[in-house]
Amino acid sequence: xxxxxxxxxxxxxxxxxxxxxxxxxxxxxxxxxxxxxxxxxxxxxxxxxxxxxxxxxxxxxxxxxxxxxxxxxxxxxxxxxxxxxxxxxxxxxxxxxxxxxxxxxxxxxxxxxxxxxxxxxxxxxxxxxxxxxxxxxxxxxxxxxxxxxxxxxxxxxxxxxxxxxxxxxxxxxxxxxxxxxxxxxxxxxxxxxxxxxxxxxxxxxxxxxxxxxxxxxxxxxxxxxxxxxxxxxxxxxxxxxxxxxxxxxxxxxxxxxxxxxxxxxxxxxxxxxxxxxxxxxxxxxxxxxxxxxxxxxxxxxxxxxxxxxxxxxxxxxxxxxxxxxxxxxxxxxxxxxxxxxxxxxxxxxxxxxxxxxxxxxxxxxxx
Length: 367
Description:
Blueprint: H1 3-19, H2 21-41, E1 49-55, H3 60-71, E2 75-80, H4 84-93, E3 98-102, H5 106-111, E4 119-122, H6 127-148, H7 169-191, H8 193-200, H9 202-207, H10 213-241, H11 251-276, H12 279-296, H13 309-315, H14 319-333, H15 337-366
Helix pairs in contact: 1-10, 2-7, 2-10, 3-6, 7-10, 7-11, 7-12, 7-14, 10-11, 10-15, 11-12, 11-14, 11-15, 14-15
């Protein structure tokens, strides 16, 4: 393989990228826009739960309990119901997810050290949010009973949250989102390049030159790799400086892992472009083979460990899963190669295998 001929292809692709200003702006701007859109629209934080209160006791103690609920950032008291019919109407209409029903003689029975339940009615249509809201409400009620009536629990847990002490979902989402966006953008950018050459008829001109298939593949890959590195820098910088995600790892290690991941992602795009034949089919194949696996099977949002065994086994062949692991561990835990070397090894094997397949497929087309 000749470096001179490879550089000639790289230079040709770079000139094509630079001259197509609209595509260049889209290639650099879309990752940032996707990051903004997903980070502000997608949140796993459960707070400001719309709450309806039905206080049948109307004692100073019951009002104190309601004030504690209102003071918590997790609850938003939207209605004070006068009867159970209004409670039912609030839950059915969706204006409240949680209803707190305080029974008559609530304070008197607690002062007499008699157990007195507080009823929590939850809208279970969103089961995950309802479960979290239930835990939050139980914590507030239990803390109120312990402090106000000296009903202490038998176990006093001391909690320590490591790596994301504020429990902000953005710190969990943004690193994974960087991997998903880079995977999609990298594959889509290159999935059209070879198909476009075939459709425009310029591929025959390239093949009539002394260029070898490996030189065409790596020349095109190098040009788009520069664009991919720029996208990665923009996405990581936005994660740290705009979304305030803590970064505790090594920039050198993360940069090296990102380059390996991008090499594999771009190689996959070129391989798809080689087998598709048309830009429309290449675009569809690139989207289906990157977006869905990266979004659903990478651990970006949904824990892979909780998936059925066949799906869990399938997730191990997608590179986004390993890059999500690297990004989250680098950002939040500050670990490096000593812990993440299995993920780096897989990404390296994947990049080498896919680039080899792309070269062989183009060589078959030439033959």
